[in-house]
Design a protein that fits this description.
Blueprint lengths: L1 E6 L6 H6 L4 E4 L7 E3 L2 E5 L2 E6 L6 E8 L3 E6 L10 E2 H22 L6 H19 L3 H38 L5 E6 L5 H10 L3 E3 L3 H4 L9 H12 L4 E3 L3 E2 L16 H19 L5 E6 L11 H18 L4 E6 L18 H8 L6 E7 L2 E2 L8 H12 L5 E6 L16 E2 L10 H17 L3 E6 L24 H13 L5
Parallel strand pairs: 1-8, 9-10, 9-19, 10-11, 11-13, 12-13, 13-14, 14-15, 15-17, 17-19
Antiparallel strand pairs: 1-5, 2-3, 2-6, 4-5, 6-7, 16-18
Helix pairs in contact: 2-3, 2-4, 3-4, 4-12, 8-9, 11-12, 12-13
């Protein structure tokens, strides 16, 4: 068993006490070079010790508080195993500085204009890191490294925002307004003020109905709400995406399906029957379908990851048999692979769609779930630069990308989403989630996704907190139907960048 030990700062930030158990070592093997591996965490005597089965170099990955950004996942550079402990903050600062320097060089080589003040600030951070690395005592090293960590995260944010702004400008110069779809996911038909607000803000619709609502009893379907939602979207002239049709999150499947737990043949038969029925009902009006979601992550049906891969293959095969010309999309949960820190998971989020493609599945697109600061389905918080790298890595698979975004606006109890067992990861904020924080995060990450040439659709995961939804308090409208600040920010992106004649 391999191990690495890190000296913790003293005093330890209060939030770090709660987030250090999330630390892990990421693998350096393969082209997705920061995939977590199962890691045993020990905290005590001012040290963080990480153990894993492999005896090889790797990256430290840990959520850490960074002013003024809150708690973000921070990675070290590649570290070798050794008996002497590393200084935690020095290695985190080294990792982030290396990332910023590498991306700045790459993007500037492609024509990105950062300005001399950015380069001066990056040089200052580099010199400050040299002092931290050579400091004679840990107190001085930790103080200097904290400054480097804060500076480099600020530079990473600025670098990525400059990249987004200039990429959008370049794309407009060559393409005019973009064809990218911008939409929000909803279940019930929109009418009145809600429909007006939606049409002003988005150029497409994503209707998502839960299997458990449509087929509450085996072979007894109720399409009333789904029919109304699809009809209303068609009447509004919006291109429609349906799905995810099958989602393995708790509360999404009908209660009667639990009786077939771990029975792959029976579950495959039931799911294929439901999928084929849904696709046959709407295929003449809806050509884009998100077939399944969460299959790479985990489920409540007792299926191991290889079984879920086989089940996904069966579902895509069934949908293609109904109509081979449909656009069929796979949604990938936790695309950074946070779930791989558990021993019962072995298929990475990058490998899952790649295995399906190699098996002959025709994926029209891969949807990446950027559900952030919620657990267990959501990912730990990352910054814009880490997300840009993620889009770049998944883009190597070949199929176009789509992005679904989600970020809570409140930490209050959400009775509507309680059935799904998702919780807000409260350590992401110093003073808790807020509508303003949701708006800032949502606008920044939506703009990043819109600027990416391989991304063809950007979806906000939840239109209204009054409708069924997965993540607590994540809608664009609150439960009373009032718009949150993010809706206006998404509308501004729509008006500035996207075509409306779809």
């Amino acid at each position: 068993m391999g191990s690495m030990t890190f000296l913790l700062p003293d005093p330890l930030p209060s939030v770090a006490t709660a987030t250090l158990p999330e630390a892990c070592i990421a693998s350096t093997v393969g082209y997705f070079d920061q995939t977590p591996v199962p890691t045993e965490v020990e905290i005590g005597s001012g040290r963080l010790t990480l153990r894993r089965a492999q005896n090889e170099s790797g990256y430290l990955v840990v959520p850490w508080p960074v002013e003024p950004f809150g708690t973000l996942v921070v990675s070290s550079s590649t570290l070798r195993e050794r008996e002497e402990p590393y200084r935690l903050l020095v290695e985190l600062a080294r990792g982030k500085l290396n990332q910023v320097r590498s991306h700045a060089a790459e993007w500037q080589g492609m024509g990105l204009r950062c300005g001399p003040d950015f380069n001066r600030s990056l040089a200052d951070a580099t010199r400050l890191f040299g002092r931290a690395a050579l400091a004679a005592n840990q107190v001085e090293a930790d103080s200097l490294a904290t400054g480097v960590l804060e500076q480099t995260h600020g530079l990473a944010d600025r670098l990525t925002r400059d990249f987004v702004d200039q990429t959008l400008a370049d794309r407009h110069a060559g393409e005019g307004r973009l064809d990218t779809r911008l939409m929000a996911r909803y279940q019930h038909a929109l009418d009145g003020d809600s429909a007006t607000e939606y049409a002003r803000s988005f150029n497409a619709a994503n209707v998502c109905f839960r299997w458990g609502d449509v087929e509450p009893h085996e072979a007894q379907y109720d399409w009333t709400q789904a029919d109304a939602a699809v009809s209303a979207a068609m009447a509004a002239g919006l291109p429609i995406t349906i799905g995810p049709v099958i989602d393995l999150a708790p509360g999404m499947l009908p209660a009667w399906a639990a009786g077939w737990e771990a029975d792959l043949p029976a579950l495959a038969a039931f799911m294929c029957d439901y999928l084929e029925t849904a696709v046959s009902r709407y295929k003449n009006d809806v050509r884009r379908w998100i077939v399944c979601a969460g299959f790479n992550h985990a489920d409540t049906l007792g299926l191991v990851d290889d079984d879920r891969l086989r089940l996904a293959f069966r579902l895509f095969e069934a949908a293609a048999q109904v109509d081979p010309s449909l656009e069929l999309i796979l949604s990938v949960a936790q695309p950074w692979g946070d779930y791989l820190n558990s021993d019962d998971q072995t298929i990475s989020p990058l490998t899952f769609p790649d295995d399906l493609v190699r098996a002959g599945v025709r994926l029209a697109a891969i949807e990446l779930e950027l559900r952030v600061a919620s657990r267990p389905r959501g990912s730990l918080p990352r910054d814009l630069l880490d997300t840009a790298r993620l889009l770049d890595v998944f883009g190597m698979l070949g199929p176009p990308l789509e992005v679904v975004l989600n970020f809570p606006s409140s930490g209050a109890t959400d009775p509507v989403s309680a059935i799904h067992g998702q919780n807000v990861w409260r350590h992401a904020w110093q003073s808790g989630p807020s509508p303003e924080g949701q708006a800032e995060w949502g606008a920044a990450f939506a703009a990043l996704a819109l600027c990416w040439p391989k991304v063809r659709a950007v979806t906000w995961d939840n239109w209204s907190d009054a409708e069924p939804h997965l993540v607590p308090n994540s809608g664009l409208l609150n439960a009373a139907g009032r718009a949150k600040p993010l809706l206006a920010r998404l509308r501004a992106l729509h008006e500035e960048h996207l075509r409306t004649d779809r």
